[in-house]
Design goal:
Layout (H helix, E strand, L loop, with lengths): L2 H51 L3 E6 L7 E2 L19 E2 L7 E2 L6 H9 L3 E6 L4 H15 L5 E6 L8 E5 L2 E5 L4 H11 L14
Parallel strand pairs: 2-3, 4-6, 5-6
Antiparallel strand pairs: 1-8, 5-7, 7-8
């Protein structure tokens, strides 16, 4: 083979060697992009599973009061409350619901006055199962040893969209099941925090 032929062959081999890594570059980029897509999709699926597992508890929300008006009678007309159950707003000026465990629903116009005094109300839907009801009853009596101002009472099923709701003045927490720790923490943080603090201070 002539020297010219050798040089041409050597040049073709050098060209193939130099172009080989470049020809693999698109495949490498595609592989990295695909791996990133898989990792992002897995992360979103994991976050979605965690979010769905937290649906049993809706964290406490503060509801700004519309004012602090008093009405004379429970049946007096007034604007709608801004939360359900209400956490502030229109209520009678004289009566409050009896602290402790009550087996019959009470008008919101009375129980809002309990909240104004700094009390905590544990509302449960009337169709709540007996085991959960027993848990709430025991918990209510335990909390009353720390402050007497706890009221547990049923709420008509069509007036409560979760099995349990706990209220304080301007605060609302809804639960899909009994959560002793969450209710106790809510109680400790918000009891005796109403605008009229009447005998609801914590004993310990």
């Amino acid at each position: 083979m002539s020297q010219t032929g050798v040089r041409r062959a050597g040049g073709r081999q050098a060209q193939r060697k130099s172009s080989s890594p470049k020809s693999n570059l698109p495949l490498i980029i595609a592989g990295v992009v695909g791996l990133l897509i898989v990792m992002v999709a897995a992360g979103m699926a994991f976050s979605s599973r965690n979010a769905s597992s937290d649906k049993s508890q809706q964290f406490p929300n503060q509801v700004p009061p519309p004012g602090n008006p008093h009405i004379v009678n429970v049946t007096d007309p007034h604007p709608a409350y801004n939360s359900n159950p209400p956490t502030s707003g229109w209520h009678t000026g004289g009566n409050i619901g009896p602290w402790g465990v009550t087996s019959e629903p009470l008008p919101d116009e009375i129980t809002v006055h309990n909240l104004e005094h700094g009390g905590i109300i544990i509302h449960y839907r009337q169709d709540l199962d007996q085991a959960s009801l027993d848990q709430l009853t025991t918990l209510t009596r335990q909390l009353q040893q720390q402050s007497p101002c706890v009221l547990m009472l049923p709420r008509p099923a069509d007036k409560l969209d979760t099995p349990i709701a706990v209220t304080a003045w301007t605060w609302l927490m809804k639960l899909d099941k009994v959560d002793t720790a969450a209710i106790t923490g809510f109680f400790r943080q918000h009891v005796n925090q109403g605008p009229e603090q009447v005998g609801c201070a914590l004993r310990s």
